[in-house]
Amino acid sequence: MNRTKPIKFKNRNRVPAWIRSVIAGSLMIALVGTLLPETFAQESGPNSGRDNRDPGPRDRRNNLEIRTIDGRNNNVENPEWGSMDSQLLRKARPDYENGSWTPSGYNRPNVRDISNTVAAQKNPIFNEKSASDFIWQWGQFIDHDIT
Hints:
Layout: H1 17-35, H2 37-40, H3 111-118, H4 134-146
């Protein structure tokens, strides 16, 4: 039987930073997996198609006051719409160029080329307040989290 040898350090009191990072990341994953079992634990086996999710707050409160982490209760009339593991319905038939395979508009200009042409600049444009692109990216993150 092959046994892996433990890592030996010259100074046992000092653990390398990369090992501390791996341990910290593993602990975070374990903690989040424990706190959010619906999200991280996927059921498998013969009964995996069964809906075992907790019915959620709509049974305990009136008017669907609380939204759940898996997307339930976002729609008053159809609380399961948009929830985790639900099918998205298509309202219009797909429009293919040849009727079955080629997407329509395949012969149009590449969107990346259009974007690069429109947004082309000869020199970098610096922000007056020395702010980087992370400012607007952070704003997008917050905006999308709120809405």
